[in-house]
């Protein structure tokens, strides 16, 4: 036990002993002497020490074996059983020391008459404080789990967004570098085409700047951009490269990762040779919910080492946005890339904060239900023993206390079934389910 915990328990014992000692000395002691006051405090401290430390170690043992969050059902059931047996045992030990050893009462009447009633009252008081003690531990663990899960969700969202931004920021210098290489070659080969290329390049770069902060763009926008880019390529390669677009109109309304077509088209040109005698044919179409880019394979030898930005960039960006995979297929004659066409523009990163807020609201509602239950249980444990005392003190021949105890007890059992899910899967009501790891 840590020093801080020990100090806290000791302070709790002192305050409890002080309060109960004053109470019993005032209302149940006829001889108001200093000696009896000290005895009253000593007896109260004995009860406080035994109950607080007994419940503390019982709680610690159960927590070490069963988690409130991962093994909630088992933890609750064992907590109720252990609380009942431990506190009844501790009550009888303390009462025996108090009533029989210290006060010299007849042991034969320990479970009968006034001593039997005293045992019953102390058992209920002990169970009340034990229930509060366990409820406090449960709420502390629940809050820790809630905060931990929310923090993890935020870290995941921030990490994904940072990674996505890093991948997008690779595109600007990458495109500019390759375009300037093409322009440099055209200036020597054909200055007039270089001017046309420069105008097209400015139009393309404007599109890149417009889409820079977007996670997804429509297929139609990407196709129009690809057509502008292929026109730029045709300026340099003329009839050495042909392009065919055959994308369904219905698919144009959906979404893909921005600049994905440009990177794949650039990849085709970079890794294949193209001549008038052996032209490179590139086809862009759609099928089965995918955007298909296919080219005949004319692998260029002695190619410079790749920068690793092209296809890997597309694959990583899709992985951050959807569970659907980018498919790459290669044979001796052709090379294919299938880009998933997404039907919803809202992505996991866009909805992370919304999902987190909704989950937090559900968790808050759950905590409120638990507070209401433990409030009802606490009231029951306080009021019912008081009613029993009043009944047996004023009219011991008629035990009317059974009616409120049974009625109220039944309502608490029904509330427990609703809150703790005894009739349904409890795991679905835990914070791990409420704050499920969508990422």
Automatic annotation (TrEMBL):
Signal transduction histidine kinase internal region domain segment(s): 162-240
UniProt keyword annotations, A-Z: Kinase, Membrane, Transferase, Transmembrane, Transmembrane helix
GO cellular-component term (any): membrane
Keyword Chloroplast belongs to the record: no
Entries under Pfam families matching the protein: 2TM (PF13239), His_kinase (PF06580)
UniProt GO MF annotations: phosphorelay sensor kinase activity
Residues in 2TM domain copies: 361-435
InterPro entries reported for this sequence: 2TM_dom, Bact_2-comp_sensor_kinase, Sig_transdc_His_kin_internal
TM region positions: 12-28, 34-56, 76-98, 118-138, 373-394, 400-423
Domain of life from the UniProt record: Bacteria
Tagged with keyword Transferase: yes
Protein name, as recorded: Histidine kinase
Native organism: Halpernia frigidisoli
Origin organism lineage: Bacteria, Pseudomonadati, Bacteroidota, Flavobacteriia, Flavobacteriales
């Amino acid at each position: 036990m840590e020093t801080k915990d020990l100090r806290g328990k000791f302070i709790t014992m002192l305050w409890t002993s002080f309060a109960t000692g004053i109470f019993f000395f005032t209302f149940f002691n006829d001889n108001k002497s200093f000696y009896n006051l000290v005895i009253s405090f000593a007896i109260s401290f004995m009860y406080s020490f035994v109950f607080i430390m007994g419940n503390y170690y019982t709680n610690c043992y159960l927590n070490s074996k069963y988690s409130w969050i991962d093994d909630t059902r088992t933890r609750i059931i064992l907590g109720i059983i252990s609380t009942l047996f431990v506190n009844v045992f501790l009550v009888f030990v303390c009462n025996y020391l108090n009533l029989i050893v210290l006060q010299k009462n007849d042991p034969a009447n320990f479970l009968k008459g006034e001593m039997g009633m005293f045992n019953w009252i102390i058992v209920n008081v002990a169970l009340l404080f034990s229930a509060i003690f366990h409820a406090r531990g449960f709420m502390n663990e629940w809050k820790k789990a809630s905060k931990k899960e929310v923090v993890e969700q935020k870290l995941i969202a921030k990490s994904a967004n940072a990674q996505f931004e890093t991948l997008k920021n690779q595109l600007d210098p990458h495109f500019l570098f390759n375009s300037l290489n093409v322009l440099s070659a055209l200036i020597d080969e054909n200055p007039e085409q270089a001017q046309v290329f420069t105008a097209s390049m400015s139009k393309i770069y404007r599109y890149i700047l417009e889409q820079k902060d977007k996670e997804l763009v429509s297929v139609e926008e990407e196709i129009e951009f690809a057509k502008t880019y292929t026109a730029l390529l045709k300026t340099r390669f003329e009839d050495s490269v042909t392009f065919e677009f055959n994308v369904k109109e219905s698919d144009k309304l959906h979404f893909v990762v921005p600049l994905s077509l440009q990177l794949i088209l650039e990849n085709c040109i970079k890794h294949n040779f193209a001549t008038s005698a052996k032209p490179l044919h590139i086809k862009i179409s759609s099928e089965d919910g995918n955007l298909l880019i296919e080219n005949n394979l004319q692998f260029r030898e002695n190619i410079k080492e790749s920068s690793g930005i092209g296809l890997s960039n597309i694959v990583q960006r899709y992985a951050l946005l959807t569970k659907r995979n980018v498919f790459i297929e290669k044979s001796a004659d052709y090379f294919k890339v299938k880009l998933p066409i997404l039907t919803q523009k809202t992505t996991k990163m866009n909805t992370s904060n919304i999902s987190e807020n909704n989950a937090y609201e559900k968790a808050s509602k759950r905590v409120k239900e638990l507070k209401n239950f433990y409030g009802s249980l606490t009231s029951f444990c306080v009021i019912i023993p008081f009613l029993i005392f009043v009944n047996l003190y004023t009219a011991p021949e008629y035990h009317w206390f059974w009616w409120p105890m049974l009625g109220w007890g039944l309502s608490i059992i029904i509330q427990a079934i609703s809150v703790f899910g005894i009739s349904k899967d409890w795991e679905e009501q835990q914070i791990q389910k409420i704050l499920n790891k969508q990422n």
